[in-house]
Amino acid sequence: MAQIIDGKAIAADVRREVAAEVARLTSAHNLVPGLAVVIVGSRKDSQTYVNMKRKACAEVGIRSVHVDLPEDISEVALVEEVHRLNADPAVHGILVQLPLPKHINEEKILSEISIEKDVDGFHPLNIGKLAMKGREPLFVPCTPKGCMELLSRSGVTVKGKRAVVVGRSNIVGLPVSLLLLKADATVSIVHSRTPDPESIVGEADIVIAAAGQAMMIKGDWIKPGAAVIDVGTNSVDDPTRKSGYRLVGDVDFAEVSKVAGYLTPVPGGVGPMTVAMLLKNTVDGAKRGVVE
Ligand SMILES: NC(=O)c1ccc[n+]([C@@H]2O[C@H](COP(=O)([O-])OP(=O)(O)OC[C@H]3O[C@@H](n4cnc5c(N)ncnc54)[C@H](OP(=O)(O)O)[C@@H]3O)[C@@H](O)[C@H]2O)c1
Q1: What residues form DSSP beta bridges with 163?
Q2: Which of 73, 90, 146, 272 has fewest C-beta within 10 Å?
Q3: pTM of the prediction?
Q4: Of the candidates 114, 111, 78, 80, which has an alpha carbon nearest to the alpha carbon of residue 94?
Q5: How does the record describe its quaternary structure (predicted)?
């Protein structure tokens, strides 16, 4: 049976460490890390995520700057808002909640965020540095960073291992592949056009599943003892639940837990780590200007 990696508990450890660091920065340097969380419009799901992030900031002592903008804001006005936050010395990180309304070019907005405050790590310069040997990005995207943290805090060695990432999106698949490569794994990426994905996944010591396909990865795909990190968050109908649905990963948990060495559950695996890494990135950003 796989060892189940408790993402909630590991995220709680990270939050405690972040809170201690915030307290130290505040008392030793009179510095309160600040995170601007920008939301445009009133999508219910985005509001839920934003509230969660703001609450998490408050719990560790990070000052969260609320920027709530109307759905019909122009792209020019949103860029001006980002520039204002870029120039604000009390703001060390800027997060623009996605998706943005259709009339706004997301790529344009994300590339206007100063790379020094790009706590989501999505700026093309930060992703470019992540991809290059010998260069270090100022920030690494939170979910991929959370996957790496789950592996290292569970005692899984990455160096020299065969790793397979299922998915190649800009926010998860690609950056997690680059992180694994930087950590000296031999990396393969499986995507929707990959023939015979199961035989490639079957060679992996480490599997990162980020395809957004409910329970796609079955027990007989997995090499016995492999470490499996399930990023997928998919809602499937469940008439036995009051809500009528439940969340499942990209991995068939019941089957894979019998074969893998390590496995993250959904929910309670990668999800809690994403917010914890956002807090960590904000504090790391704030510390950059401090002379110890
Ligand atoms: N827990 C968290 O904090 C967190 C954070 C972010 C995302 N997620 C979850 O992670 C999953 C992936 O998110 P995302 O934003 O990366 O999704 P995405 O942008 O839709 O990308 C999905 C990727 O998976 C590939 N793919 C789709 N179907 C496939 C299949 N049958 N076989 C192999 N590859 C396949 C796609 O290939 P192509 O490129 O060829 O289309 C694409 O690269 C989602 O379930 C999402 O909800 C969770």
Answers
A1: 187, 206
A2: 90
A3: 0.97
A4: 114
A5: Homodimer.
3-state secondary structure of 89: coil
Name the residue type at position 37: V
Give the rounded distance of the alpha carbon of 51 from its chain centre: 17
Packing angle of the helix pair 142-153, 7-29 (nearest 10 deg): 110
pLDDT band, very low/low/confident/very high, at 289 (cuts 50, 70, 90): confident
Indicate whether residue 173 lines ligand 1 (CB < 6 A): yes
Tell me the residue type at 44: K
Whether the CB of 143 sits within 6 Å of ligand 1? yes
pLDDT tens-digit map of 7-60: 999 999 999 999 999 999 999 999 999 999 999 999 999 999 999 999 999 999
Query: What pLDDT, in 10s, does the model give residues 93-115?
Result: 999 999 999 999 999 999 999 99
> For 187, how many CA atoms within 13 A lie in the half-sphere containing its CB?
21
**22 Cα: distance to centroid of ligand 1 (angstroms):** 33
pLDDT at 145 over 90: yes
Give me ligand 1 centre to Cα 141, in Å.
Answer: 15
Q: Is the CB of 214 under 6 A from ligand 1?
A: no
Residue linked to tokens 């950056």 = 175
231 CB under 6 A from ligand 1?
yes
- Number of other CB atoms surrounding residue 74 within 10 Å: 10
Residues acting as catalytic residues = 53, 97, 120
Which CA distances in Å does 144 have to 41, 57, 85, 229? 27, 20, 25, 10
Question: E-assigned strands of the chain?
Answer: 3-4, 34-40, 63-69, 93-96, 162-166, 186-190, 206-209, 227-230, 234-237, 245-248, 262-263
- With contact defined as beta carbons under 8 Å apart, do 206 and 163 qualify? yes
